[in-house]
Request: fold
Amino acid sequence: MTEINKNENFAGEVSEYVVSDKVLAKISKKVVDKVDGVLDIQRGFFDNITSSFSTDSESTSGISISQKDMDSVVEAGIILEYGKRAEEVFRNLDKAIKTEIKNLTGINVKAVKVNIVDILTKEEFKKKQEQEEKNR
Reply:
């Protein structure tokens, strides 16, 4: 009877961890919520419908992640606060997302791509939110 060394089955294996796209999107969402000049992330029509049925307060709709190995690209559509300089808001967002994801996961964010889909005053944004709440 031959004894097989069980460790031979795992020769050459390397320890690793994987961070899901959803986790990177959640981190990005938390960063976006803190950056001055960003009122919200733009969600699509179907995202608004599903969020009214969802109990998940950590929605990441409006943010997409592309990953390869330990590199990623973050894309988001945002509503910019009227009166804020888009270039400055973007620079702050870019730096904060890259720093936070790297610090928490070790993953490099190669690019942050932001699509400014709307510009509203805080008052206009608040009215829009109230109207959406009434329509739910």
